Structures are given as structure tokens and as C-alpha cells.
Amino acid sequence: MNPLTIILVIVVLLVVYAIVIYNGLVTLKNRVDNGWAQIDTQLQRRYDLIPNLIETVKGYAKHESEVFEKVTAARAGMANATTVGEKAEADNALSGTLKTLFAVAEAYPDLRANENFKELQVELTNTENKISFARQFYNDTVARLNIAIQKFPRNIIAGMFNFKECEYFKTDSQEVRTAPKVSF
User: Fold this and answer.
1) Radius of gyration from C-alpha coordinates of the chain
2) Phi/psi-derived region of residue 162, left when phi > 0, alpha when psi is between -120 and 50, beta in every other case
3) Neighbours of 127 (CB within 10 A)
4) CA-to-CA distance for 34 and 36, rounded, in angstroms?
5) Is 55 or 165 the better-scoring residue by pLDDT?
């Protein structure tokens, strides 16, 4: 076999290999973007449900204004968040205040029996579950992308085409990790 042919075959194989690596990185990046879009969709759904929930609870728990103010402030923080880190922080705050809101609702038997409240609570619980699954999918996909970007020889292709590691959606807040305390 001619040395020029061997060199040409090696170059073609290297180019094909680089294309395969590049396409794999693009696929992972798009999956990360899709995972983030799924989280964002569910966060928006929860954001939209909260005013209805607050109005339903307000009718029963008029003297619990501090809880409503915290939920409203956390909801506003969610609206103003733009990056993954900011959204994660706002989500943590909102989750914590919602736990407190549900704890307040437990103190009002008539409220727990109210159909509107029950429906909203089920919708919010379903949304929280969807957010949890979306976070898991997103973080798993971010892990796959970050590992791919760090491994040799993919790190060379990733560097050449400016692929960056993505940020995990995580909870740093101890408030979210503990059950709320409500006293009357």
C-alpha cells in the first residue's frame, strides 16, 4: 500500500472520529438545554398556581399574613431569576415557603376539606414531582456532558469548539432540607 494512501486513510479516520465526538457533544448540550427547558416549564407552572393557592388559603387564615408575604416574596424572586444558580436559589426559597404554607393549612380543618384547596394542593404536588424528575434528568444530563467535556480526547474537541461545562441545579439551603415549624 502506498504511504500517501495510508496517511490519507489515517487523516480521514481522524476527521470522522472528530466529527463523531463533536456530534456527541452537540447532542449532550441539546439534552442539557432540553432538561433546563423542562425545569423552567414546571417552575413556571408552579409560579402560576401559587396565587390561586394563596387566595384560597387567605380566606381561611387571615391572620397568617407573614406566611403569605414570604410566599409572595419568594415567588417574586423566582420571576426575577435568570441563571441556573439564581433559579435554583429562588426555587429553594419558594419550596421552603410552600412547605410553611401547607403546614399552616394543616391547622385549618375546614380549609383541608375545601375542594379548591384540595385540587390546588394536588396540582402543586404533581408539579413538585415533575420539577423533581426534571431536575434529576437535567443533572444527569449535565453530568454526562461535563464528563464528556473533561475526558481525553473529547476535551480537545470541546476546547476547540468552545463547549463549556454546565452548572448543576442544586440545593444549598438548609431551610429546604428541613420540615417547617408552625406554631400558633
Assistant:
1) 24
2) left
3) 19
4) 5
5) 165
Q: List phi, psi (to 5°) of 95.
A: -60, -45
pTM (global) more than 0.85: no
The answer to whether 73 and 94 are in contact (CB under 8 A) is no
Q: Rounded to whole angstroms, how far apart are CA atoms 133 and 139?
A: 10
Domain ranges across the chain: 9-132+144-160
Q: What is the C-alpha separation between 72 and 151, in angstroms, rounded?
A: 44
Whether 156 shows a pLDDT value over 80: the answer reads yes
Residue 113 has pLDDT above 50, yes or no: yes
Q: Which of 6-10, 52-56, 91-95, 112-116 has the highest mean pLDDT?
A: 6-10
Sign of CA dihedral 95, 99, 105, 109: positive
The most distant pair of C-alpha atoms in the chain lies apart, rounded to whole Å, by: 89
